[in-house]
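Lab notebook page, bench 4
Experiment: in silico fold of construct C2
Operator: M.H.
Input chain length: 156 residues
Purpose: comparison with the prior construct
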Amino acid sequence: MADQRTQADEQDTWIPDDEWEAIVANVPLVSVDLVIRHEGGVILGLRENEPARGEWFVPGGTVLKNETLTDAVHRVADEELGVDVTIESRLGTFEHFYDTSEVEGVDSKHYLATAFEVTLDDDTLEMDAQHSRLEVFEPPYENLHPYVERYLQALE
């Protein structure tokens, strides 16, 4: 498994694998999720990694040390989609409990995820390795991951 980032990109600081394992095993992770409104629906990515592998999910990521939530939104949009976004609203903070993890020896993951409604500043999406596809899902939304459904309910 690759080491995890702890600071903003320009500082190039990493958490060693054994420390990341201890964090995931013992501490909820603070994260941001992007609910991207686009063409009458929302953009979801088909996840290639845990948690939620094989599910259509919103882009998101862990908040780095000394990073504001809004800065994290912009960094995640750039890293996962290669775009800038405009934050339209803050949908709230949600707890996510998963019974899987990408960390060997850790069988669960807990997030405190703050969801933001955003729009794209540019339509040229560049998908990262976490997603095999990106698609626009339009209402009525059906058969999506329960955490995604909560976000979509919060949009209403």
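Observations: The mean pLDDT is 90. The chain has three helices and nine strands.
Next step: discuss at group meeting.
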